[in-house]
Amino acid sequence: MANKKQIAFVLLDLLRELTDEDHVLIAKDILKLLKERCGFAIERRTLYSNIRALEEAGYEIEKRNDNGFCYRLKGRPFSREEILLICRAVENAGHIPKRKAKAIAEKLLSTQSRYEAEKLVRDISQYRTQKQTATALVSEEEGMVVLFKCEKSVFEQLKDTLNKDAFFRERDGRYYISVKTSREFALFLAQKYLGSLMILEPPNLKNEFTERLQKATGEYLETM
């Protein structure tokens, strides 16, 4: 529950969350929402004085006179295009953990209205799906970039056997290998070093190996 000195901050959160180019709030609705969030009723003159305070602090608030005064927050730290560009760059980086990537996306989305954030989430999800599909459709001749996680012994061994384009990385005691290779060779390595090497990316190849392993285990148990 906020106090009177915090009204401007609550108002700013409301305008940031619920207004954009296509959505505005009328004064009556703002007063109702402020009462719900602050826990006490606010007069119109108090609302107007807090809007002026936000404007004096540098926030750009657009006023419209559509069936009563309407307001929306215009200035945003990032544009829609900038957020998509950053999120796609993070997706393509490869070395950024998924939890960190998710935190970055959520922080960027929090600068937008609820409605714009929902659209951006759909766009980001669509891009991720398209990227995974494109990875899955890479031909055998061209090969695909496969990311493995492995034990140190396998890491050292494969340094001498994989082609020069393979990328080896040790991070916090964990060992990773990224190499452009065929699907079948990647599955062969995962089978050969079972328990000491695992496929991390692409997801469809990781899932395929898991399914093969489960099938093989089931067939073996049926013979016992």
CATH class of the largest domain, named Alpha Beta
Query: What letter string, H or E per element, gives the SSE order?
Result: HEHHEEHHHEHEEHEH
What number of structural domains do the residues give? 3
Bulk shape:
elongated
- Strand arrangement across the biggest beta sheet: 5-6-4-7
The CATH topology of the largest domain: Alpha-Beta Plaits
Beta strands, count: 7
Q: pLDDT below 50 for ≥5 consecutive residues: which ranges?
A: 137-141
Structural Rg = 27 Å
Sheet having the most strands:
4 strands, antiparallel
CATH architecture group name of the largest domain? 2-Layer Sandwich
Count of DSSP helices?
9
Question: What's the mean pLDDT score?
Answer: 85
Give the proportion of residues in helices. 55-70%
**Spatial gap, N to C terminus:** 65 Å
Secondary structure class reads alpha+beta
> What share of the residues does DSSP label as strand, in percent?
15-25%
